[in-house]
Amino acid sequence: MKDNSRRRFLQNAGIATIASVSPLAAAPEKQKELFIHHVYFYLKEPHNAEHEAKLLEGLTKLAKVPTIQYVHIGKPAETNRSVIVRDYTFSWMCFFKNIIEEEIYQTHPIHLEFIKDYGHLWEKVIVYDSVGPKKVG
User: Fold this and answer.
1) Model confidence over 95-114: pLDDT tens digits?
2) Would you give the distance in Å from CA 87 to the centre of its chain?
3) Residue pLDDT, tens place only, 78-90
4) Which has the least CB within 10 A, 37, 50, 111, 126?
5) What is the C-alpha separation between 12 and 100, in angstroms, rounded?
6) How far apart are CA 118 and CA 46, in angstroms?
7) How many CA atoms, within 13 angstroms, populate the side-chain half-sphere of residue 48?
8) How far is CA 89 from CA 48, 85, 117, in A?
9) Of the candidates 96, 94, 89, the residue with the CA atom closest to the CA atom of residue 118
10) Distance between CA 22 and CA 103 in Å, rounded?
């Protein structure tokens, strides 16, 4: 009887382990989709040159996270059309091979340190994440 109970326990534990695995691991197609992470930073003091330079310093450090394939740090362009938003301080756009690489970025020590060291500078961030095929056409 004890042997049977132990076996049942081990089987249930195995099922629980499988069920707790990330759905990303069970979806290999997610590993093939290019992942773009686009963040808009709004400084608490938008016209403070010192704070702007400090945030740029932090973003430059953040670009060293190894799973990032490409990074673009931008400021609002001098374009004027009704659909263009220009009220942010910095745009941070980075490309990852897939969502798994982006998840690694989210918990990477450099990213966590960036939030800790520079988070006091911004009043808000807006994030747009998107996925898609690696190549079109």
Assistant:
1) 999 999 999 999 999 999 99
2) 22
3) 999 999 999 999 9
4) 50
5) 28
6) 14
7) 11
8) 10, 11, 18
9) 89
10) 11
Q: Which residue has the tokens 């982006």?
A: 102
Contact 69, 133 (CB under 8 A): no
Tokens coding 124 = 């808000």
d(CA 130, CA 36) in angstroms, rounded, equals 5
Hey, what are 50's tokens?
A: 């010192």
Compute the Cα dihedral for 96, 102, 108, 111 and give only its sign: positive
Which structure tokens are listed for 80?
């004027």
Of 87, 129, 117, 100, the residue nearest 27 (C-alpha): 100
Task: Work out how many domains the chain is built from and give that number.
Answer: 1
Q: Domain span at residue 53?
A: 27-132
User: Structure pTM?
Assistant: 0.76
What is the distance between the alpha carbons of residues 80 and 113, in angstroms, rounded to a whole number?
A: 36
Its sign, for the CA torsion 71, 73, 77, 83, is positive
What CATH number did the domain enclosing 36 receive? 3.30.70.100
